[in-house]
Amino acid sequence: MSADPAALELDAGAWAERRARAQQLHPRYPFAAELLTLYLGLLPVQEDAWNDVRERPPDPAQLPRWAAARVLPAVVQATVAAGPEALREAAGSRLAAGAGEDALAGWLVGADLDPVDRYLARATLGPALEALGERAGEACAIRGDDGDGAVCPRCGGLPQTSYVAATGESLVSGGRSLLCARCGSSWSCSRSICLACGEDREARLTTYSEHWGSDAPPLFPHLRIAGCETCSRYLIEVDLERDPRAVPEVDELVALPLDLHAGDRGLTKVTPNLMGF
Could you tell me which CATH number the domain at 159-269 has? Predict the structure, then answer.
């Protein structure tokens, strides 16, 4: 597996695409309205952070301190304004207690954080790492390897989701890419391997699309569960051939029924998304 240079760099237009997609999905999926409201509230803060880092990049080694002072308060403010009650209270209390920098530093090196600290760290640092681009790995102190491609080659982060590119040809399948949960970069990946354990036996790799137990039209015709019977892990996969308007990091957030179905089948997501699912 290898990095896809065209997919590694986020440009300024991506923020508008994320916003437009979240606004489009908000009325379509009422069960996800609360988390999309929070996501839309976070986007202006994250875009500002991304612009700040692009214009005046901080020393990657000092990123937790920089982000705790420059970004975290605005993330908490957006969360208090748009988040669910329990998260609003928890985020506000974290900031009032002066917490922040240690959790941010821990998230960068893969520490096991509680869900609130993980959410705050990811919401705060994600856009900064995206803006750092090739230097993101310096901030994380973890580098990807050139082995089976199960982790991000830029920062060593786990994949959040996979997506299949649109080809425009009905008989040709697009290549598969992975989206990093830490720095937001993408890299190419074989469609015949488990990203959690490296299993490559086709009989052990399972795909679930939304056709179980109902004749109703699927809510997510472009989403599916890519699971592994060997390690019982899974990712949500986004098929851009079925919906070219999809934005993988946004569409993955609303796949709650698929996450519940995966859990019912004994599968655990490779890593929770921004909203903890």
Answer: 3.90.1670.10
Question: d(Cα 73, Cα 78) in Å, to the nearest integer?
Answer: 9
Q: Which residues, listed in sequence order, are joined to residue 223 by a DSSP beta bridge? A: 238
CA angle 27, 30, 36 (to 5 degrees): 75
State how far the Cα of 154 lies from the Cα of 175, in Å rounded to an integer: 20
Asked if 106 and 121 count as a contact pair (C-beta separation under 8 A), the reply is yes
The burial of 205, by beta-carbon neighbours within 10 Å (0-12 exposed, 13-18 middle, 19 or more buried), is given as middle
- pTM given for the model: 0.90
Q: What are the residue ranges of CATH 3.90.1670.10 in the chain?
A: 159-269
Please, how many CA atoms are within 13 Å of residue 12, restricted to the half-sphere of its CB?
6
Question: What CA–CA distance (Å, rounded) separates 121 from 195?
Answer: 24
Which residue type is seen at 20? Answer: A
- pLDDT in 10s for each residue of the chain, 277 residues: 444 433 345 577 899 999 999 999 999 999 999 999 999 999 999 999 999 999 999 999 999 999 999 999 999 999 999 999 999 999 988 887 777 899 999 999 999 999 999 999 999 999 999 999 999 999 996 655 545 568 899 999 999 999 998 765 555 566 889 999 999 999 998 878 888 888 899 999 988 877 655 667 788 999 999 999 999 999 999 999 999 999 999 999 999 999 999 999 999 999 999 999 9
Beta bridge partners of 178: 162, 187
Name the strand (E) or helix (H) holding 259: helix 256-264
